[in-house]
Structure to design on (824 residues):
C-alpha cells in the first residue's frame, strides 16, 4: 500500500479537473493557520519517494485534544502525511523527508529522539484492522509488556480500562483469552484502538479506520472518536466527507501532496475559502 | 470430443487418475509391509509332514507356489516352503518340499516350538524334563506347564545376569577405565607423581577385587541357569538336550485357541519392540535401533530448528533484499538437492576428523590414540543430518515469514516496539505453523536417511545405548543403531537372510510407524498453533 501510493498520485496528476487547475506549484509556503493551543506543528514538510515528491511544503498546526481530519482524493498524500507523525515512513527505503515536525515543541526528527519512544507517544490505528494473532488480552497488553510492565494485576487493570475506553469490554470480558482473530471486523478495529490507547499516547493517528466496516460498526467507531478526544489529540484520515463533518473539529483538504485549505470543519464544509475545496466537499469531483 | 478437452474435464480426470494410482501404490506398499511383517509373528500351526522317502519334518507353512511342469520325478504341481527350524540339526531353517512327495500331513497337538537364544527356533516334541536331577516324562499332562514355569524362572535369572553384567560389571569397567586414563594422563603430561600413581593403581586393584566377586556371582547364576534341561525329540527322531537357560519362550501352537494365540502374539510383538537383538540381529528385538533412531531425530531437531529459523530470519527480515540474498537463496535451495552421501562424507571430514579430532586432542588426550569424539557417534550423525535438512527448514520458515502480513508488523512497530520485539513477539509466532511444517519435512527426511549415517556413527550392533547411569548420562560420542541401517543389515548383510526376512518387514513397518508418529505429533502441535495464531483477519 505504501509503495503504491506515489504511483497512484502520478495517475491522478491531471492538468485540470472539472475546470479546476491543480494547486499552483511554485507558490510561497503559507504560514501555518493559527489554531488555539497547537500540539503538533508541521513546518515546510516535504517528502520524496526516490525522486517523486509526495508532500510539498506542508505547514499546519494540529490542535490539542481536538479531532483533525484529513480529506482529499486517493493518493493526495493524506496517509503519507499521517505516517510522518510517528515516523512510520522510516520503514520505506528510499523515502526522504525535509522540513520539521514538532510535538509539544520538540522536533521528532532530531537525532536524539528515540523512535520507539516517539511511537509510544503517537499511537496509530490502521485502515485494515490488524490485531496480533494472540489473545484479546495479549493484544491490549502488548504495549505495556513492551514497556516492561510484568505485574499481572497492573496488566489486568490496563486491559480492562482500555477495553472499556474502546467500548469493547462488555462484548469481550468473558473471553479475554480467546484469539483476537475470532472477533468481528468492527470489534477488531475497536480492539486495535484499545491497543493503541493502552500506551497512553499524546496523539492518536487514525488511517481511514472505518473504510472496511459496515455502517453500524462505523457509527460505533465515530462515537468512540468523539469520546476519546477528551483525552487524546486525534488525527483522522478519511475518504468519507460525511464522516469528517461528523467527527472532526478541524479539517484539512489535501490535493496532490499539498494542503489546499485547513480550517475548522464548519468553515470547510459550509463556507470554504477556496473554490477547489468547495468543489470537492460538494461532490463535484473526487 | 473437443468440448471435453476445452472445458478441462479431461485434465481433471487425468489428475484424479494419477492421484489414485499414487494412493494405491502407497497403500499397497504399506499393506505389503504390514502383512508380511506383522503376519510373520503370528504363532502359526505347525504341521508334521511325512515324506515318501521316510523322513519327517515339523514345520510352519510359509509359502506355496506352483512348479510349472513339475520336476519330472514326482509329477507334483505345487511345492511348499516350510519353516522347519532346528538349524543346528538341518543346517537351514527353511525347506522346500514338493507336495507330491508328502505322504501324510497332520497337526500333532503336542508339537512344541522353542524360541532359543541360539540357533533359532526348535520344532519337536517334549520327551522329558530334568529338574534338579528329577525326571518328568513328556507324557505327563503337567509336563508342559512345568516347562513353562521353569523357562520363566530361567528368564528371571537371565535378567539378573544382565543386570550384573550391565550394572555392577559395567560400573567396574567404567571405574577401571577412568583410573587407567588418569594414569595415562599423568604419563602424557609428563608428570611424575608416585603418590598419585600408587593411588590410582590401588583403586584399580580394588575394582579388580570387586570384579572377582561379581564374576563369582555370575558363575553361580550361570550354573543355576543350566542346571535344568529339556530333552527334545525332533520329527525325525533325533534327541536333543537343551538347557532351559537357552530357551526364551515355548509354545504349542496346535493346541492354542485364537485368544491364546493373540495373547502370545502381543507378548512376542512386545518382545520384538523392547528386546536387544540376538544372533547377528536375525532374532530377538530391535529396541536399540528404535531408541537410536528416535534419539538421533530429536537431537537433529534440536540443532536444526534454531539454525534454520535464525538463517531464515536474517535472509527475510534483516538482510537487504538484493542480488546477494537471491544468490544465497538459490544456493540454499540447491543444497536441499545434494545427494545425502555427500553430506555424509562432509560430516566425516568436518565433524569426525575436524571438530572431533580437536575435541579429542584438547579434552580426551589421555584416551588417545583411541578416539573419543574423533570417530562416528550419534552427535556427529545428528549434526550431519541437521546439515542435510537445514535447507528444508530455511525454505519453509522463509515462506512462513513472508506470509506474515505487513500491517501486523506495522501495528507492532506503531506501538513503540523495536524491530527485534516485533519479530520475536509477533512475526515468529505467526510464522510458527510454517516453521513446524519445515520441521515435519525435515524429520521425515532425516528418519529415512541411511547413507550418511553409515559413515558417521551407525553400527550394526551397539550393545550400549547412548543413555545410561554414568555421568554425563547422555553419551553423544557413542555409536548407535538405526532402523534404516538395520533393514539394510538384516536384508542384505545377514548370513541367514531367509530367516531375517520377516524381521526386515517388521523393521520397515516400525520405521514407517515412527515417521508417522513423529509427524502426527508435529501436525497436532501445528494445528494447535494455527488455531492460536491464525493470521487471517475476520
Amino acid at each position: 500500500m505504501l509503495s503504491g501510493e506515489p504511483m497512484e498520485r502520478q495517475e491522478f496528476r491531471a492538468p485540470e479537473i472539472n475546470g479546476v487547475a491543480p494547486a499552483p506549484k511554485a507558490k510561497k509556503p503559507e504560514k501555518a493557520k493559527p489554531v488555539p493551543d497547537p500540539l503538533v506543528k508541521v513546518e515546510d514538510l516535504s517528502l520524496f519517494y526516490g525522486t517523486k515528491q509526495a508532500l510539498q511544503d506542508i505547514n499546519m498546526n494540529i490542535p490539542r485534544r481536538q479531532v483533525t481530519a484529513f480529506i482529499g482524493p486517493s493518493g493526495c498524500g493524506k496517509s503519507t502525511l499521517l505516517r510522518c507523525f510517528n515516523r512510520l515512513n522510516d520503514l520505506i527505503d528510499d523515502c526522504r523527508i525535509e522540513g520539521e515536525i514538532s510535538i509539544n515543541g520538540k522536533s521528532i526528527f532530531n537525532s536524539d529522539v528515540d523512535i520507539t519512544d516517539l511511537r509510544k507517544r503517537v499511537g496509530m490505528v490502521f485502515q485494515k484492522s490488524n490485531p496480533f494473532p494472540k489473545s484479546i488480552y495479549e493484544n491490549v497488553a502488548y504495549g505495556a509488556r513492551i514497556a516492561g510492565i510484568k505485574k499481572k494485576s497492573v496488566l489486568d487493570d490496563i486491559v480492562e480500562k482500555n477495553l472499556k475506553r474502546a467500548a469493547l469490554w462488555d462484548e469481550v470480558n468473558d473471553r479475554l483469552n480467546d484469539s483476537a482473530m475470532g472477533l468481528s471486523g468492527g470489534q477488531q478495529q475497536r480492539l486495535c484502538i484499545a491497543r493503541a490507547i493502552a500506551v497512553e499516547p499524546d496523539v492518536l493517528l487514525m488511517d481511514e479506520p472505518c473504510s472496511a466496516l459496515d455502517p453500524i460498526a462505523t457509527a460505533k467507531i465515530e462515537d468512540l472518536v468523539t469520546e476519546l478526544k477528551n483525552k487524546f489529540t486525534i488525527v483522522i484520515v478519511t475518504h468519507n466527507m460525511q464522516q469528517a463533518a461528523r467527527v472532526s473539529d478541524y479539517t484539512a483538504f489535501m490535493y496532490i501532496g499539498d494542503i489546499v485549505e485547513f480550517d475548522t470543519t464548519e468553515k470547510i464544509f459550509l463556507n470554504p475559502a477556496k473554490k477547489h475545496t468547495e468543489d470537492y466537499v460538494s461532490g463535484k469531483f473526487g | 470430443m473437443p468440448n471435453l478437452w476445452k472445458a478441462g474435464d479431461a485434465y481433471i480426470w487425468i489428475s484424479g487418475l494419477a492421484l489414485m494410482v499414487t494412493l494405491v501404490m502407497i497403500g499397497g506398499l504399506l499393506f505389503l509391509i504390514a502383512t508380511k511383517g506383522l503376519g510373520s509373528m503370528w504363532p502359526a500351526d505347525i504341521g508334521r509332514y511325512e515324506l515318501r522317502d521316510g523322513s519327517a519334518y515339523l514345520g510352519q507353512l510359509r509359502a506355496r507356489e506352483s512348479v510349472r511342469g513339475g520336476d519330472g520325478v514326482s509329477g507334483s504341481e505345487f511345492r511348499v516352503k516350510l519353516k522347519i527350524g532346528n538349524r543346528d540339526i538341518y543346517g537351514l531353517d527353511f525347506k522346500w518340499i514338493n507336495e507330491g512327495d508328502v505322504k501324510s500331513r497332520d497337526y500333532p497337538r503336542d508339537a512344541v516350538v522353542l524360541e532359543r537364544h541360539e540357533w533359532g527356533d526348535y520344532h519337536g516334541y517334549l520327551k522329558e524334563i530334568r529338574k534338579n536331577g528329577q525326571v518328568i516324562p513328556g507324557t505327563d499332562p503337567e509336563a508342559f506347564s512345568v516347562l513353562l514355569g521353569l523357562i520363566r524362572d530361567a528368564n528371571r535369572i537371565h535378567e539378573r545376569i544382565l543386570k550384573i553384567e550391565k550394572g555392577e560389571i559395567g560400573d567396574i569397567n567404567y571405574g577401571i577405565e577412568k583410573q587407567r586414563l588418569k594414569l595415562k594422563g599423568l604419563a602424557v603430561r609428563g608428570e611424575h607423581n608416585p603418590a598419585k600413581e600408587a593411588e590410582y593403581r590401588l583403586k584399580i586393584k580394588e575394582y579388580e577385587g570387586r570384579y572377582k566377586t561379581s564374576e563369582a556371582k555370575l558363575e553361580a547364576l550361570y550354573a543355576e541357569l543350566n542346571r535344568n534341561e529339556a530333552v527334545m525329540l525332533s520329527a525325525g527322531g533325533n534327541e536333543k538336550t537343551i538347557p532351559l537357560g537357552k530357551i526364551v519362550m515355548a509354545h504349542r501352537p496346535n493346541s492354542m485357541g485364537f485368544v491364546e494365540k493373540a495373547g502370545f502374539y502381543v507378548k512376542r510383538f512386545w518382545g520384538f519392540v523392547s528386546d536387544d537383538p540376538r544372533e547377528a540381529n536375525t532374532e530377538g528385538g530391535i529396541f536399540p535401533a528404535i531408541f537410536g533412531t528416535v534419539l538421533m531425530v530429536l537431537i537433529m531437531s534440536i540443532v536444526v530448528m534454531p539454525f534454520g529459523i535464525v538463517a531464515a530470519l536474517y535472509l527475510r527480515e534483516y538482510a537487504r533484499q538484493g542480488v546477494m540474498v537471491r544468490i544465497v537463496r538459490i544456493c540454499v535451495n540447491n543444497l536441499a538437492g545434494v545427494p545425502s552421501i555427500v553430506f555424509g562424507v562432509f560430516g566425516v571430514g568436518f565433524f569426525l576428523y575436524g571438530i572431533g579430532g580437536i575435541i579429542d586432542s584438547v579434552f580426551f588426550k589421555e584416551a588417545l590414540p583411541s578416539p573419543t569424539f574423533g570417530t562416528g557417534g550419534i552427535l556427529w550423525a545428528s549434526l550431519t543430518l541437521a546439515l542435510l535438512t537445514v535447507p528444508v527448514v530455511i525454505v519453509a520458515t522463509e515462506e512462513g515469514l513472508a506470509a506474515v502480513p505487513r500491517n501486523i508488523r506495522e501495528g507492532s512497530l506503531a506501538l513503540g516496539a523495536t524491530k527485534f520485539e516485533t519479530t520475536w513477539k509477533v512475526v515468529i509466532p505467526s510464522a510458527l505453523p510454517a516453521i513446524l511444517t519445515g520441521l515435519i519435512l525435515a524429520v521425515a527426511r532425516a528418519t529415512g536417511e541411511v547413507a550418511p549415517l553409515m559413515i558417521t556413527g551407525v553400527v550394526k550392533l551397539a550393545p550400549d545405548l547412548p543413555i545410561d547411569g554414568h555421568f554425563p548420562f547422555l553419551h553423544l560420542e557413542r555409536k548407535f543403531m538405526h532402523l534404516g541401517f538395520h533393514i539394510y543389515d538384516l536384508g542384505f548383510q545377514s548370513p541367514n537372510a531367509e530367516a531375517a526376512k520377516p524381521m526386515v518387514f517388521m523393521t520397515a513397518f516400525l520405521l514407517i510407524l515412527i515417521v508417522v508418529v513423529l509427524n502426527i505429533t508435529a501436525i497436532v502441535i501445528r494445528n494447535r498453533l494455527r488455531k492460536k495464531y491464525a493470521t487471517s483477519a475476520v
